[in-house]
Amino acid sequence: MTPDPAPNSAIRSFFEDSEGHWVATLACGHTQHVRHAPPREVRPWVTTEEGRAAKIGAELACPFCLMPKLPDDVVEYKRTSAFDPSTVPAGLLKSHTTKGGTWGEIVVEAGHVVYVLEDRGGASVVLREGVNGIIAPEAPHHVDPRPGARFFVRLLRAAEGAR
Ligand SMILES: [Zn+2]
Question: Which pLDDT belongs to residue 163?
Fold first, then answer.
């Protein structure tokens, strides 16, 4: 399987995180670190006001855009208890799907959870607090909670009478 390439999204603005690293806010609403931390990440432009200004409108590949969008008209009807790597049900760690009409939202409370979208060629995104995973109905997927992770899953479906 070749992972689907991440779609591009244009840089709208920049902000500094609590550790002083620069983060780009993209047109899609997702954010992405654009660190200057040589030799691993070299982006001297991000350290100057002019350098950042020149990158407004430039496109970055956004892996989070590989996830489907949660429809506006779905409501939560169930949620799991919180899991960590030692309590996560084995079924979540291997390929599985939600039922027809059922959406899922992986909500991370601590650490990192790798969410593998098998219907996007096995592309994966790293979820963290504030970056939830969206699961489309019947889409095969699995998760890989990293040490220290804690997360739960919300199940959602169309509200009664909404359609
Ligand atoms: Zn995005």
Answer: 52
CATH of the domain at 118: 2.60.120.10
- The answer on 94 and 50 residing in a single domain is no
| Nearest CA-CA partner of 52 in 21, 19, 7, 18 | 21
What separation in Å is there between the alpha carbon of 86 and the centre of ligand 1?
Answer: 31
Split into its structural domains, the chain has a count of 2
Domain span at 12: 8-63
Where residue 137 falls (left for φ over 0; alpha for ψ -120 to 50; beta otherwise) is beta
Tell me what the mean pLDDT of segment 132-152 comes to: 98
Is residue 53 domain-shared with residue 28, that is, in the same domain? yes
Give me the pLDDT at residue 161, please.
Answer: 60
> Ligand 1 being an ion, which residues bring their Cβ within 5 A of it?
9, 28, 30, 62, 64-65
> From ligand 1's centre to the CA of 35, what distance in Å?
18
